Amino acid sequence: MKKIIKKSYKILALILLSTMACTDLSERPYNVLVEEDLGSSPEVLAALTAPVYTRLTDLLYGWHGYFDLVEECSDAIVTPARPNGWIDGGVYRNMHMHTWNAFQSHPSGLWNRAYGSLNILNNALLNYQTIEGENIPVLVSELRALRAFYYYLLVDAFGNVPIVTEENLLTPDELPSQSSRREVFDFIEAELLDIMDIIPEEKVYGKMNKWAAKMILAKIYLNAEVYIGEAKYQQAIAQVDDIINSGLYILEPNYHTNFVTNNQSSREQIFSVIFDETRAGWFHYHWKTLHPASAATYNLGTAPWGGSAAIPQFIDTYEEGDSRFDIWIRGPQFSLSGQPIFNSMDPSLREVQLDYQNTMGSVDATREYEGYRVGKYEIEIGSVGPLSNDVPFFRYADALMIKAESLLRTGNADAAAQIVTEVRMRSFENPDDAVVTGAELMQGSRYQYGNYESGSIVSLEGGDDVQYGRFLDELGYEFAAEFHRRQDLIRFGVFTSKSWLTHRPNGNHRTIFPIPQPAIDANPNLNQNPGYN
Questions:
Q1: pTM of the model as a whole
Q2: What is the 3-state secondary structure (H, E, C) of 269-309?
Q3: Which among 61, 216, 425, 480 is least buried, having the fewest CB atoms inside 10 angstroms?
Q4: Radius of gyration of the chain (CA)
Q5: Rounded distance between C-alpha atoms, residue 77 and residue 92, angstroms
Q6: What keywords would UniProt list here (predicted)?
Q7: Residues 106/69, Cβ–Cβ less than 8 Å
Q8: What is d(CA 374, CA 357) in angstroms, rounded to the nearest whole number?
Q9: CA 217 – CA 243 distance, rounded (Å)
């Protein structure tokens, strides 16, 4: 069992009372805990910072969490209607069909979890202003980097959001105003550049450091054309070059090392969210994807729910010999002792061995065996609850691929191909099969876009017209089920222009989500994003 950051619940309770703000600013604000209240021991300082990290587990994999938000709307993963349910009022269908509205639970989940964490984070920063110590500026820089991370998620998902800092807490009667996407972009950039010479360089597992901060910068620069209409690829290269030249990170020789149980030994992970089956337990994706009968394969203490799976068109793009394909659970299924296990929900299939097949009816109707299941993270044998795999949000491979894409988009396809080949090498037994050329990266995508019904494409659109589509394919193989796909599809112009499974394009405004209606109702300073009124 790994150690995770200890929390002082007494201190946390005091922090959470911060919403009870005083209106006489000449008096001491009682939502600020000064040094004589707390002291400045490492335990106290950890109690101020720990919640903003531990809450990331719920943000990423809580019910209708960030994973579902950015993967369910993509061309790779879907939660279709199943014989055992998963209709759920149409929320998953909405994500697949891009028909969500301002009441959709998935965007609301990100909004509420992010701003709830920012409230705690900003209170910690406000409290740090009252504590002296040589390590305080370092802790402040770490929290500011984490705050920039939260705003990176928000600006990517919603575009125009309020910027709330510790200064807002001193004017509690003023509801925050809404900032433009450019203003949020500029805030993230300025925050990270300002703390870059203060934040630690050394690796502290599960916490922000200089290199994680540089990854956030590289990400907003990579997506700057989407966010603010300006290309910043050279700036992205500069940030990841610093990470590459640090010598602190490597491509793990075995790709799957990044996703095993208690995977903190991986030298590829730049920023990871720590999960633990008993103390930080939100990682239950194996339940969401596996058929109930698959409990026998892993000796699970409870039956999975049998929901999400890979979209067949995405699976069909993989090259033969690519070991990254092994993240998908497929084919006939057996118990831990080697006995066949059987379908259970459809009376006509109860005597038929469970066999995950790469086919699917539609988002509205599937058989229980349809669709390969997500098995990227090792499922621990005998697990009785959530998994203890830590989730890498930024990996060294990501830094390399940011550089490769930036080179490709600035006319250096051959240099980009060298990097892509380096990333591919560990995933092919024959090194020659891993080599890709600049000319190939300039080609379209292998993905056969178009509407798909019951095993075949009924209106072929193809992927030949996707600029740099071959590179988009590579991102899909390397980062499948890693929070990437929505953002990548938007950057490559596919998200609102192509069809897959039952999805059809439904408006360019879908590149950002609506501001949740309850947030607008609570704050008259917020305006709904275009297209959702």
A1: 0.92
A2: EEEEECCECCCECCCCHHHHHCCHHHHHHHCCCCCCCCCCE
A3: 425
A4: 23
A5: 11
A6: Cell outer membrane, Membrane, Signal
A7: yes
A8: 13
A9: 12
Distance of CA 517 to the CA centre of its chain: 23
Residue type for 358, please? N
Q: What's the gap between Cα 345 and its chain centre?
A: 32
Nearest partner of 375 among 315, 318, 327, 311, judged by Cα:
327
Q: Using alpha carbons, select from 112, 389, 451, 447 the residue that is nearest to residue 264.
A: 389
Determine the Cα–Cα distance for residues 292 and 390; give it in Å rounded to an integer: 24
Most confident of 279-293, 379-393, 422-436: 422-436
Asked whether the beta carbons of 122 and 169 are under 8 A apart, the reply is yes
Count the Cβ atoms, other than its own, within 10 Å of residue 78: 29
List the alpha helices (DSSP H) in 129-228. 136-158, 181-195, 210-222, 224-228
Which amino acid is it at 392? P
Backbone angles phi and psi of 21, in degrees to 5: -90, 145
- Cα torsion 379, 486, 459, 474: sign: negative
Q: Parallel, antiparallel, or unpaired: how do β-strands 269-273 and 331-332 relate?
A: unpaired
Strands (E), 408-503: 450-453, 456-460, 500-501
As given in the structure block, the two tokens for residue 437 are 């050329």
Q: Residue 385: phi, psi to the nearest 5?
A: -160, -150
pLDDT 10s digits, 36-94: 445 556 566 677 778 889 999 999 999 999 999 999 999 999 999 999 899 999 999 99
Q: What are phi and psi of 89, to 5 degrees?
A: 70, 10
Q: CB of 121 within 8 A of CB of 148?
A: no
Two structure tokens written together for 381: 């044998």
Q: Are 118 and 185 in contact (CB under 8 A)?
A: no
* Tokens of residue 507, six digits: 């408006």
Does an H or E element contain 481, and which?
A: none
- CA 150 vs CA 153, 167, 468, 510, 515: distances in Å: 5, 17, 29, 21, 16
Lowest mean pLDDT among 17-21, 279-283, 470-474: 17-21
